[in-house]
């Protein structure tokens, strides 16, 4: 009984008091080094452009070594001879002229494809019939190679820019519409309700909530549409030749292939790759940095 009373008494005992003390504030410069500074090599290794540049240099060196060992310029010219042909094409203004012709035609088809993709995606988001229409057309036409429509385009529109623009629209439309539609459908109901709680309706809800939330998917669609349009254009110019009296990069490659000027052919291919890298790193990368990365949606 005595032990039970002692246990009950200890259960109601007051907690121990903690002594109060005051610590002095230490200045930041007195703390010392919290994180070790990076070495010059580590700083260079953190630069993405430098790592990618070194990879390109390694690929170019491997190309040069392989071509010299093969010693057959009709199959694989050396990287140095390709650069020489590339420089000659620029000095003669032949490559810049072909690039301008191709890019001008590409922008027409890309812009038209974006407009149609916006219309189809808007209809799909507003009505159930529009959603069924987009899903049906995407399932039917997205697997169809755009270059396969070129013979029909030549019959319908004849020899001209419209035929190539038609196949470019096909290559852009379904990729952009499919990704944009998937992005809008993946927006959570929580974000939608947050927007409505702030009084957002109609266009304000679309531009302030839906488009920012779906923009990673939209940007992916823009990239895929650009890549599809660019390679479709080069393939169409290889088959189509000169459009409206003006040839593009595809025609430049085809023409020099017929003359067995293989270094110039590789120079044309090198130009195609270079333009793709420039668009990806100067256009889409800046758009991504100003939007989805700035919003914290990607690392």
Oligomer: single chain
Radius of gyration: 31 Å
Q: Could you say which overall geometry the principal axes of the C-alpha atoms support?
A: flat
Secondary-structure element series: HHHHHHHHHHHHH
Q: Approximately how much helix is present in the residues?
A: over 70%
| Fourth CATH level, the homologous superfamily of the domain at 93-290 | MetI-like
Structural class: mainly alpha
Please identify, by name, the CATH architecture of the domain at 93-290. Answer: Orthogonal Bundle
Describe this structure in words.
It is built from 13 helices and no strands. The protein has 299 residues and is mainly alpha-helical. Helix 6 (94-126) packs antiparallel against helix 7 (128-141).
Topology of this structure?
Elements: H1 2-11, H2 28-31, H3 40-45, H4 48-70, H5 79-91, H6 94-126, H7 128-141, H8 150-157, H9 161-185, H10 189-197, H11 203-240, H12 249-258, H13 262-290
Helix pairs in contact: 5-13, 6-7, 6-9, 6-11, 6-12, 7-9, 8-9, 9-11, 10-11, 11-12, 11-13, 12-13
Quick structural overview:
This protein is an all-alpha fold and 299 residues long.
Q: Which tags fit this structure?
A:
single chain, 299 residues, mainly alpha, MetI-like fold, 13 helices, flat
